[in-house]
Amino acid sequence: MLTAEHEEFRASVRAMAAAHVAPIADELDRTDEFPARLIEVFGDLGLIQLAVPTEYGGPGADLIATCIAREEVARAGSMALAQLAGETGIVVQGLLDSADDALRKRILPELAEGRTLTCIAITENDVGSDPAMLRTTAVRDGAGWVINGAKQFITWGSLARYALVFARSNDAPRAAGVSAFLVDTDQPGWVVARDNDKMGQRGVPNNEILLNDLRVPDEMRVGPEGRGFSAALRGLHLNRPTVAAIAVGGAQCALDYAARYAAQRETGGQPVADYQGIRWMIAEAATQVEAARSLVYRCAEAHDAGAPHREVTRLSSMAKLFATDMVQRVTADSLQILGGHGYMRDHPVERYVRDARLMSIYEGTNEIQKNIIARAVLR
Questions:
Q1: 72 catalytic, yes or no?
Q2: What is the CATH number of domain 231-378?
Q3: pLDDT tens-digit profile of 75-111?
Q4: Is the pLDDT of residue 231 over 80?
């Protein structure tokens, strides 16, 4: 289903990832320090800004291309750095869907340069899967707003120049009281309170953010007051197949490593790969990876072909659910193939297991994806 241009793009991303991602993947995990030089590397290839339309100076890439980019970076050995490909996608989509023309013209050309990171700030300590209950407030003050609150688990929070922040701006119930604001994090009041120490996918910052009397002009409001969630929902749905693509790439990386090990490692006078039990594990893992890959690109192709939003939403949740469950099984089986060696940090497979565990949690837990899928089926 991929065009020649898609295949050329895949080859270019694969070459970049082999040169710049694979050699530092283990070091990234040990140090938990993001290599800032990769912003320029990814940006020069158009990867950070993939979603920015050509009319604003961006690549105008389709969803298939974003999935390709994330799969290939993950396949090179880093599910964490795969998030840098298409990094601005959710914020770009929010601006395209909900912002006025003046705000789009002000921000999107800057994002098109591929040097600016963004983040989305919804989650709070007591508010995760039901963001309509969030407690962060936005109060009118003259020609702008004053935002107060705290956000948790904000990926890229310490490096992002712009943040799409969601806050309760009126007393209307649930989502009807929430507005969205594009915040310049250089402004006083955006405070990085904590760098979260993660189990896996280390090297990409994840932060607790405090919003202390953060002043935002009204022209930075994204969409009508009280209609904030419309600025995020489509972007979140479209990000899920790209998360699934990371899972596919990460699983393929683990399987490739385990297969090479099994072919080279000998026990009882023969390669481990000659044992039927190992061969069956490899066969099952390869089948699961291929099935997940097909679902990811089925979803991306449907979106790019203009399928109804309901259909894309259903497929995106299916892809996210299936692929992120799959990567946990495949990485665990890959470790099992290595036996005791797999548990040691001499081999990267134990890192793949830790990195995979996050996949079913972020971008909407898999339990939430099941609810979305069930609603679509029962409808």
A1: no
A2: 1.20.140.10
A3: 999 999 999 999 999 999 999 999 999 999 999 999 9
A4: no
DSSP characters over 39-72: HHHHHHTT-TTTTS-GGGTS----HHHHHHHHHH
Contact 28, 202 (CB under 8 A): yes
Task: Find, among 150, 70, 56, 65, the residue nearest to 103 by Cα.
Answer: 56
CATH 1.10.540.10 residue ranges of the chain are 4-112
pLDDT in tens, 269-288: 899 999 999 999 999 999 99
Given the residues 7, 71, 363, 367, the one annotated as active site: 363
118-227: CATH topology is: Butyryl-CoA Dehydrogenase, subunit A; domain 2 (2.40.110)
Helix (H) or strand (E) holding 211: strand 206-217
Does residue 265 register a pLDDT over 70?
yes
* Chain segment 113-169, per-residue pLDDT in tens: 999 999 999 999 987 767 778 899 999 999 999 999 999 999 999 999 999 999 999
End-to-end, the C-alpha distance of the chain in Å comes to 29
Residues, the chain, total? 379
217 pairs with which residues across the strands? 144
Question: Residues of the chain with pLDDT > 70: what percent?
Answer: 100
Question: Do residues 178 and 226 make contact, with C-beta atoms less than 8 angstroms apart?
Answer: yes
94 and 107 Cβ atoms separated by less than 8 Å: no
CA distance 51 to 92: 7
Location of structure tokens 């840098």: 84
Q: Pull the structure tokens for residue 283.
A: 């066969």
Dist CA 215 CA 187 (whole Å)? 8
Task: Count how many Cα atoms sit within 13 Å of the Cα of residue 46 in the half-sphere of its side chain.
Answer: 18
Closest by CA position to 51, among listed 94, 98, 5, 7:
94
The class level of CATH for 4-112 reads mainly alpha
Q: What is the pLDDT at residue 234?
A: 83
**From CA 81, how far away is CA 72, in angstroms rounded?**
11
**pLDDT tier at 226 (50, 70, 90 boundaries)?**
confident
pTM over 0.85: yes
Kindly report the backbone phi and psi dihedral angles of residue 130, in degrees, each rounded to the nearest multiple of 5, phi listed first: -125, 70
Span(s) in the chain for CATH 1.20.140.10? 231-378
Question: What tokens were used for 11?
Answer: 């080859």
